[in-house]
Write a structure and sequence with these properties.
It is found in: Nucleus. One of its GO terms (molecular function) is DNA-binding transcription factor activity. Its main location: nucleus. The chain has about 325 residues and is α+β, with helices and mostly antiparallel strands. It has a domain of about 60 residues: N-terminal domain of TfIIb, CATH 2.20.25. The protein is built from ten helices and eleven strands. It has a six-stranded antiparallel β-sheet with strand order 4-5-10-9-8-7. A three-stranded mixed β-sheet has the order 1-11-3. It binds a DNA duplex (16 and 16 nucleotides) through strand 7 and strand 8.
Length: about 325
DNA sequence: CGTATTTGACCGGCGC
DNA sequence: GCGCCGGTCAAATACG
């Protein structure tokens, strides 16, 4: 299991958006992305993730698992392993998962999401498996990007196609962890999906590696996703695509900051208040709250758009 | 028949 | 060294 000891500090950024079905319907051209309630195979539902795909998952994270299991420890150097369970989540979230509203996803079909993302630079890990490869080299992992999503479905649709290659029971959790790999032959991106034992309504998704190709959805309807800038999801698309390029550039020049996270559409789509007020059962919208945790200090110093979209109290890292 | 999922076995890392 | 555990493999199975 990876340790977060090396990760040190996490800087959390929170982004919340809300998703309404109507909006989703406007993007029928991007079926899978918004298909949160449809049943894929009868029992397996799919959620949507929109932005992630595109994230290109580049450099990130100490897995959320660590964050969850050792909540604050990552942020506070002297890790006093709180016997807590999910305090961390609560702590970092503007609205506690439970209380939060969202919890009660008003619409079944919809999904409220609370997302937390952790970022970490991990070393690349040689493929393990039957054949040992360079075992002398310290195991390295792909960069990871983890986040939590409040969702009823485990596997969030993110625009890419994934093939499940394993599932394991997780210690101290009644929920299994599923392992997925991008179906693209040349793409080695992997992702793990598991439900938080502390809050079953929360799905923890960890991406590892970066896509070497555009998402199927993007290639097929990129213009729709990017140009249509009136919804959080469209934002996600734009975000994702740009992020990919953005990160590639970053990797080359290793600099940069500019929390590109989210180029928000003019009118809304991002509504933090909904996150806190979503508690109201009568709410019709699905809420998505995404939290990003990045180890890049630079991202923190300059919040860029985040300054506008993220409530100060959400930026705890500061 | 091709593709995706399931699931038990296997492997390696890590803590004791 | 041993056992636990996370992660992956790959054969079997399911599905369209």
């Amino acid at each position: 299991m990876e340790k977060n000891s090396e990760t040190g500090n996490y800087n959390w950024m929170g982004v919340s958006t809300f998703f309404d079905h109507q909006m989703a319907s406007n993007y029928s051209s991007l079926p899978s992305i918004f298909d949160m309630s449809s049943n894929d195979h009868g029992d397996q539902q799919r959620g949507s993730l929109g932005f992630m795909d595109l994230l290109g998952i580049q450099d990130f994270s100490p897995s959320l698992f660590d964050m969850i299991q050792q909540p604050l420890s990552a942020q506070s150097p002297p890790p006093p392993p709180p016997p807590v369970s999910e305090t961390s989540e609560v702590t970092n979230l503007p609205a506690t998962p439970n209380s939060s509203s969202i919890s009660s996803s008003s619409n079944e079909a919809t999904t409220d999401e609370h997302v937390r993302v952790s970022e970490e630079k991990e070393q690349e890990k040689p493929k393990q498996g039957s054949k040992p490869k360079k075992k002398t080299e310290k195991r390295q992992r792909e960069q990871r990007f983890a986040f939590m999503t409040k969702s009823e479905v485990d596997h969030l649709e993110d625009g890419y196609r994934w093939r499940k290659y394993g599932q394991k029971a997780v210690k101290n959790s009644p929920f299994p962890r599923s392992y997925y790999r991008c179906t693209s032959a040349t793409c080695g991106v992997k992702k793990r999906v598991e439900r938080s034992s502390d809050d079953p309504s929360m799905v923890v998704t960890t991406y590892e590696g970066q896509h070497t190709h555009l998402s199927p959805v993007m290639s097929r309807g990129s213009s729709a996703g990017i140009s249509a800038g009136s919804g959080s999801f469209s934002t996600d698309f734009a975000f994702g695509s740009t992020m990919q390029n953005h990160y590639q550039q970053q990797q080359q020049q290793q600099q940069q900051q500019q929390p590109y996270f989210y180029s928000l559409p003019p009118n809304n789509s991002v509504n933090y208040s909904t996150t806190t007020t979503s508690t109201s059962p009568s709410h019709n919208l699905d809420h998505h709250e995404r939290r990003f945790c990045t180890s890049a200090a630079s991202l923190l110093t300059d919040h860029g758009l985040l300054q506008d979209i993220v409530p100060s109290d959400m930026r705890k890292d500061e």
